[in-house]
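LAB NOTEBOOK - FOLDING QUEUE
OPERATOR: T.R.
BATCH SIZE: 2
PURPOSE: Compare the predicted structure-token outputs for two unrelated chains run back to back under identical settings.
PRIORITY: normal
REVIEWER: second-year student, initials M.K.

ITEM 1
FIELD SEQUENCE / FIELD STRUCTURE:
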Amino acid sequence: MTKEKELKKMTLTVQGSKKINLYLAGEGTFTIEWGDENPSETFTLVSIDNNNWLNEIGHYKFSHAYKDNSIQIINIVSEKITHLRCDNFVLSSLDISRNAELTHLALCANQLENIDISNNIALKFLHCVDNQLTSLDVSKYFNQIISLNVKKNEALKDIYCEGILAGQLS
């Protein structure tokens, strides 16, 4: 008897954006429910070179256009997503708590007030400049982080939060 792979779900809430681009990598298949009347789409993920993942756009970019700027809830169900990048649109919330295999996360220039990465123990790269964060001190660049607790994120090697002031890193 073959063991069925456990599917993991991510939820992204987008407000005020007519077009979004998501960059994903990993293994296996995933399905995106874009949150509008369009049908779900299923794709196959590919693994990529971790050193160049922010620059290699072509083979893992997924785009969607909305007819207005209303709130959209995007659900992504996957076997294994290791890389997620969603920059420069109005991402107001993100639930990645069920994606423990996520190693690379880039969320720059959105409207996020918090990011919960406590279950993302494999996370090695976090890029979250230009948000409204209150729980990661980068006040110089729109974030208001006073402390950052990464005790459970033992694999985390790099956090890019420009302008960190005298806060607490634990």
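ITEM 2
FIELD SEQUENCE / FIELD STRUCTURE:
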Amino acid sequence: MKKNYYFLLIVSVLLFSSTRNAKDSEFLIVPVDFNSDVSIPLSTIADEIKAIELELTDESLINPDRIQRFHFLDDHIILYELDKILVFDMNGKFVCTIGSKGQGPREYTRIEKFAVDEKAKRLIIVNSPRIICYDLTGKFLFQSNSFFETGSKVVFDLIRLNDDMFIMADQFVGMNERGADAPGTFSQPKLYKVDDNFRITDSITYRKTFYESLVFYMHIWNNLILKSNSNAYVYFPDYMGGKKKASEPSLQDTLYRFEKNKLIPDLKLQFKNNGISGSEKIIELGGIYRSTRFVFAVYIKSGGAGLFRFCYDIKTKMGYNMKSGFTDDINQIEKRINIRPFNSNTEMFYYWHTHMKPDDKDEPNPTLYIGKLKK
């Protein structure tokens, strides 16, 4: 009996160990050497890149410094700046503008966030306390105040995941740890599930954070919910300028997979000393996202070092820390390139560049480059 007991015990331990290791292996640890500075060629990560010259007209004039994000839907390219939305076809020909700036019921005073609903074929503008919807031709569909009816919310991203629409938003409450009114801000970002009229049907809390001081709500990256094949990933950074309790310095360094209405840790960026020096953060991490093969991040290093971009190849286990971005060895662009992911498919990326010719009297619209990542 003793032999059988010990045999079963050993088997149980081995099974537990193998199960634990299998689970551990699913959680990826990505080392980041923030003291290095390289620039890798785009051909290292990209299979192909397509160039699209965006047509310049009186209505389609683009300020490259004001571009917030590109979207792609039904062979259309949709970009939004701080105060306008432009639609082009996939050959770069200008199609139309979406909506107009103003105080009217079908207008917007500012574009806080913008999204494309692929299923409903509609374009969504967040202009608190309203959410406004248009179709691809610019026709006004409807507007809703439902999402903002309960609590004061700040929207940071929105996206359709399969059949459901989700909004990442934060609610700020002035309170201390005991819940009494006091200086400071209690942050509680949530992933809200909403119906087609943006009424809240469910929510999941991302985290809760108390800031001793928070004077503005600023992020250095605005892609917080992204899709990669059949998976969805969520990352919500700390606020720039937000000061936590000195006894609790921490770096939000984990990317979460959103699966079956749960946020599951998927990978962690491993900075030296967790990006902490003494009681202060020396790394301000702005964003993390991933494709099947690559992990990308953007962060600020203190001490005036500036903005860095990071790329990690899961296949080769090589990491690249870049202050100036990628080198475009495919299109031979001298300026370093900063790529951005497709919101609906992080296996794809884009960037833009303005090519000035010697005989150009006016600055042309930028050329849009669309790339496909290697697998």
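REVIEWER COMMENT (ITEM 2): The helical segments are 2-26.
FOLLOW-UP: none requested
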